[in-house]
């Protein structure tokens, strides 16, 4: 059964924000204008589940009416007190640039993020970690492995759907440098250089540069901070290593005007060829990857509830959205509209809904596999349609005693299936034929597991919590054979790793990658070797055959953190969050040596890095392809007073 959700976001009182893994941290400072070093980013508020439908189908639970719930601060403990920003207060000096609070510790209220609902009651914050008994979920005779060793130049967008555009926003300087120094600064700097040359007895004085930073803290990167040859790429991968990885800010989508207490779902972002598409207020908009120019605007009946994580054949993408715009009388219309649209033109190919017992079924996820689009994770089972024409392949029926909870697509189609009722629910993982929806094989999930997330469809790997509620959502990964039998289980103790799987969702795990017969996960932040409160982490791997740690690790380096994005052939693509005074990076990790090579390096210009760091990296929608990185939020709300935030940012390699 699924976990009971907390109350609605929209009517909740404001409070502190959740922490974000890997987001750049800034030292504390008194209030300042745009472009001044900002405080650490905050976690956006969680989604109102279903925006009208009770969140998530509780595997076997009967549904009760009421406003849709949210997921406020799930699993995170209360954070430290807020910094003193009183006028005239002495600013606190940072211990170490780029310092990160430990994973799981809430940073102070900061740049661009609205306040979120208060922390949940005791029992949702870090529960005492309990390991399952030895052999839990294992094939007979197999021992449980021991814990391992350790998204600018933007003109104002046209109005649509009655929505009034926001007032002009401060534009981020897309260049590589900051403000021009004054003559006094130049004179002083020159004097310092002369003194340093004399005192240093021939040792050249130089200010810290991005290249210096690459040498000192980009673990495994080339010494000059460059990515390598123009045409070189990893085995089977498509991402080429550039001679110069420096990027420019190519897209900024300003935050729309939003009422004080509103939270708008904008789930879904897609990248295909020269077009990047992003959900916004009751619409999906397409942008040119290189210039950021708006190419098309696709109006939706209501807010976006879900977007396919992949783009299908012919450049087709899928979105689930509300049947109407929210009103005071109906704040949360049902998520029962399914549309497929062309990424190049923004033209809607088809729209469908599923009739079930006199009403329309609601859905929370949409996936694409081959020529089939599937929807699920709502309250009424799952459905499949042909991608090109929207012809129904299968739909839920009232008479069904078993039903699909949700799906994960990509190279293969995998379903989480449920039989039985509240007293005795039985979960299954099934490999489906996308053309028919028929199961090719079925794996019976061990009793006691209430929530299943699909980590990979080829090979099939699913995750679950086998103990108390966790922060990450998955404490164990189950690896299945090609015939649907259990091969092994990988234990991921809560608090030790920094992946994230959303509760009551099937295809919503982030910061994990599967390839090379390995599961790649980021470790939780830890203290680095630098002075002060320098923080860092690693990406480590587990063998899918043995379930044990391989000992392989890619170190982020002091003041940096790594999170996997996806596989590129046999190489691991990762986002590398930087300290507050540098831009983030996208790196490619060699699976044999675990050394990193830089694919993209964002500007260190103050306004650009502040805009980038306003996104909580492990909770943002993040897409990288062919030298372009896009970072976006899936929940929109009014920024705090005096701050600026964006729906999406794009960075393109020169």
Automatic annotation (TrEMBL):
<keyword id="KW-1133">Transmembrane helix</keyword>
<feature type="region of interest" description="Disordered">
    <location>
        <begin position="1"/>
        <end position="179"/>
    </location>
</feature>
<feature type="domain" description="Pyrrolo-quinoline quinone repeat">
    <location>
        <begin position="273"/>
        <end position="400"/>
    </location>
</feature>
<dbReference type="InterPro" id="IPR002372">
    <property type="entry name" value="PQQ_rpt_dom"/>
</dbReference>
<keyword id="KW-0812">Transmembrane</keyword>
<dbReference type="Pfam" id="PF13360">
    <property type="entry name" value="PQQ_2"/>
</dbReference>
<feature type="compositionally biased region" description="Pro residues">
    <location>
        <begin position="38"/>
        <end position="47"/>
    </location>
</feature>
<feature type="compositionally biased region" description="Low complexity">
    <location>
        <begin position="153"/>
        <end position="163"/>
    </location>
</feature>
<dbReference type="InterPro" id="IPR011047">
    <property type="entry name" value="Quinoprotein_ADH-like_sf"/>
</dbReference>
<dbReference type="InterPro" id="IPR015943">
    <property type="entry name" value="WD40/YVTN_repeat-like_dom_sf"/>
</dbReference>
<protein>
    <recommendedName>
        <fullName>Pyrrolo-quinoline quinone repeat domain-containing protein</fullName>
    </recommendedName>
</protein>
<feature type="transmembrane region" description="Helical">
    <location>
        <begin position="184"/>
        <end position="206"/>
    </location>
</feature>
<feature type="compositionally biased region" description="Low complexity">
    <location>
        <begin position="85"/>
        <end position="114"/>
    </location>
</feature>
<keyword id="KW-0472">Membrane</keyword>
<feature type="compositionally biased region" description="Low complexity">
    <location>
        <begin position="9"/>
        <end position="37"/>
    </location>
</feature>
<feature type="region of interest" description="Disordered">
    <location>
        <begin position="208"/>
        <end position="249"/>
    </location>
</feature>
